[in-house]
Amino acid sequence: MQHHSRSFLFAHRLTQCFSLLIGVLLLSGVSACSSRKKVVSTAPLPAPPTPRIEVEIPVEKPVIPSNAEAIRGVWLTTIYGLDWPSRRAVSTQDMVSQRKELCRILDRLAESHFNTVFFQVRHRGDVIYPSKIEPRVTVFTGGRNNYLDYDPLQFAIEECHKRGLSIHAWIVTFPLGNTSHVQSLGDNSVWKKHRDWCFTLHNDWYLNPGHPEARSYITSVVREMVERYDLDGVHFDYVRYPDKMREKEDQNLYMRYGKGRSLGEWRTSNISAFLKEVSTEVCSVKPHMLVSAAPLGKLRVLPSMPNVGWTARESVFQDPAAWYREGSVDFIVPMMYYRDNLFEPFLVDWKAQIPGLPIVPGLAPYRTEDESKWTARDIENQMNASERMGMAGICFYRELNIRPNRNGVDRVITRHFISPVRMPSFAKRGTPRPPRPSALTIEDKGSYFEASWSMPSSWDSSKGTYNLYVSVPEGNLAGEDFLLAAQIPTTRYTFSKELLQQFSRAKTLEFRVEASNRSYVRGEASEAAILVKGN
Predict the structure, then answer these.
(1) Which of 1, 22, 202, 265 has its CA 20 to 30 A from that of 108?
(2) Residues near 35 by Cβ (< 8 Å), separated by ≥ 6?
(3) Which residues of 277-302 are buried (b: 16+ CB within 10 A; e: fewer)?
(4) What UniProt keywords apply to this chain's record, in alphabetical order (predicted)?
């Protein structure tokens, strides 16, 4: 979709969604643009960069400033085509249809003000892209060697970035699938080549986290992908031992590598060692790329709640606090697929136990469609709790379950994602702060406006995106910055004149733009481009 048409969709949605929060707005004194600095000058104001414009402005509607930072994510599942693709391709036209289907999904996410897609790229020892290390999945064509005229991962990356969406490669880490599946993978599979790195439990095969070479193997798969693709992050799912893991499955490895630790301590250290190894490798290739993981939703057994089922720490040997201390993850997305007393107490515990780590609760809208008998209100209550506790965002499992006309979850999201937000900054990555944009202009193009700006020649435009703000210099809205668009991929952006309806009483509008690098560290905002309305 071109920026032009997307801007109109964005403007239309913004006009529809702004709710009656003006009372709160008028009491707010928070600036949305953290790097904005008022320019003090005795020189007269520069002439407006666009002509005086006569615009029909309807009755003023309330506007809401967006100074929030949040990851608004969704897991987009490709295994079995659960979210995409819905059909296998046996013809060129089928392949076109697959691509169009993904574009429609991404359009919905962008228009709903999501900013992050966790895109499943590794299933059970097989991957969705061409690899020299692992076999291809069958979900796109029905066969591992069948012809496909596009690379699904490359296509997803390009289409996400066009829409201002970050894309993180979702890796299913240690599971390899059942016996039938691993046998179907052929001679190029790790199960076939290195059976000694694997173990079986209840007819399912796994790479053994206790085997150093098995951990390094997964790291090599990730490195190949990171070197080849322009991803924003790598996201590890099932980075754990299976539930009810028996001692006999790794007794020999424990005797060899345990070094005086208990079996539980050793297993926990293996998971942490893998994340440290793979994170170091990712950062060595692309320092900006974020690393995240999806642990179980309950961190530990709480003293007041001793019988809560399986937990990350005690049941599957995950220690996210150690991951944070060792710098292995930039954020985590705990799979909090519970409600009532199994949700909020554990949300509080995550925040208390690892206060410095950005935590993005993973919610379960799929439970509104299974035997759990949840409602959209359950999801909304959890979103409210997460926002109230200052979590770093929200993520949904999975994309299918937040589509329109599915038990109302999409309407809940619309109410909460009423305007765009900025991505949280990950300054610890140490990537250089972007320079300040210059020469921002707002040009009248008839039915829409076009914003354009310049960056220093030393700035590689592929190293970041841009956030565009508007503010009103006088009246009750003075001092507020309104985020019009986030993660703009180029130095040009179009938006509909309908956006001016939100500022009908303002005689003058000021626009600013700031650059954001690939770790979402923002630079100083530009000088204002001033738009004067006609009488």
Answers:
(1) 22
(2) 514, 522, 523, 524, 525
(3) bbbebbbeebebbbbbbbbbbbbbbe
(4) Signal
pLDDT in tens, 425-463: 999 888 899 999 999 999 999 989 999 999 999 898 888
Residue 231 to residue 62: CA distance in whole angstroms: 37
Amino acid (1-letter code) at residue 261: R
- Rounded Cα gap, residues 299 and 389, in angstroms: 17
pLDDT classification of 346: cutoffs 50, 70, 90? very high
Identity at 188, one-letter amino acid code: N
**Domains along the sequence of the chain with CATH:** 71-417 (3.20.20.80), 438-532 (2.60.40.10)
**Strand 438-444, strand 204-207: pairing:** unpaired
Residue 160 DSSP SS3? helix
Mark out the alpha helices in 31-151 (DSSP H runs): 92-111
- Which candidate, 496, 495, 467, places its Cα nearest to that of 483? 467
Q: DSSP string spanning 447-465?
A: SEEEEEEE--TTS-GGGEE
Q: How many CB atoms lie within 10 A of CB 271?
A: 29
Query: Would you state the structure tokens that stand for residue 460, as one six-digit string?
Result: 């590689």
Q: In sequence order, what are the residues at sequence separation of 6 or more whose Cβ sits closer than 8 angstroms to the Cβ of residue 439? A: 453, 454
Helix (H, G, I), strand (E, B) or coil at 379: helix
Give phi and psi for 25, each to the nearest 5. -55, -45
Give the helix ranges, DSSP H, for 376-421: 376-388, 409-416
How far, CA to CA in Å, does 482 sit from each of 63, 200, 438, 465, 513?
8, 54, 19, 17, 11
Q: Dihedral of CA 467/470/473/474: which sign?
A: negative
What is the side-by-side strand order in the sheet with 393-396?
A: 331-332, 290-293, 233-237, 166-172, 116-122, 71-76, 393-396, 362-363
pTM over 0.85: yes
Contact 232, 518 (CB under 8 A): yes
Instruction: List, for residues 139-150, the tens digit of each pLDDT value.
Output: 999 999 999 999
Structure tokens at 530: 């001033």
Length reported for the chain: 535
